[in-house]
Structure formats: C-alpha cells, structure tokens
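User: structure tokens for MotA/TolQ/ExbB proton channel domain-containing protein, please.
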Amino acid sequence: MLERLWYLALVFPQQAQALQQRWLARGERRSSAARHIRTAWLAQAQAQLARFMPLVRVLIALCPLLGLLGTVSGMIQVFDVMSISGNGNPRAMAAGVSRATVPTMAGMVIAISGLFCLARLDQQARRALQRLSDRLQQD
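Assistant: Done. Predicted tokens:
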C-alpha cells in the first residue's frame, strides 16, 4: 500500500505530465490514429495505476485468516493446560486465552484499516486517470 501511495503521489504525476507534453507536441489530435494513440496511452496509465492492487486485496483478505490461525493455536494451548491441570485453572488458561484473542484482534484491525486504505487508493487512482484523460482532450 505504501508503494502505491508513493506512486500516486510522486511518480504518476510526472508520468502524466510527460504524456500531456507528448500529446500537446502532436501536430494533429483529431484523427482516428490520434484517438487510438490517446486510448492506448490511457490504457497504459490505467494498467500502471492498477498494478499490485490485486496483491494488496489478497493480503488484506489473508489478515483475518492469519488472525484465526493465531486463535486456533491459542485455543490449543488452553486445551493443553486443561488436560494437564485437569481442573481448568484460570490463571494457567489466561495465557492461552490471551494468545487466542490478540492475533484475532490484530488480524481484524489490519484488515479493516487495509480496506479503508484500499478504497482510498482506488479513489485516488480513478481521479488521477480522469485528470489525465481530461488533459489529453482532443481539439
């Protein structure tokens, strides 16, 4: 996510400026060939803006599952304590319960904050592409 934020803030504006200069340097901008060139440039820009976004989505989806894995391992520890002590000693079980709840909470917090950041990235990418499209208007 940090790479995408960096790209949107620093790299893409420079690329968009270079594309705009190339577009304005063209002698004609109304022909069918010019429209195809514009469409191709916009498609390339969109591909660059969407780069790594599927990976970010997968990583966000994995966070709660990793938290669940921590929950399962913590509950196994609780059951081990119960099988050894036999009576369900609350002090002995507390470490396992803590080990079970902390990863779940961490996974959910990361996933929820990741979803907000992902929505923000998508919105910024759409706006950047729309601004570029507006800059490359045909005469």
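User: Anything notable?

Assistant: Residues 2-135 form one domain.
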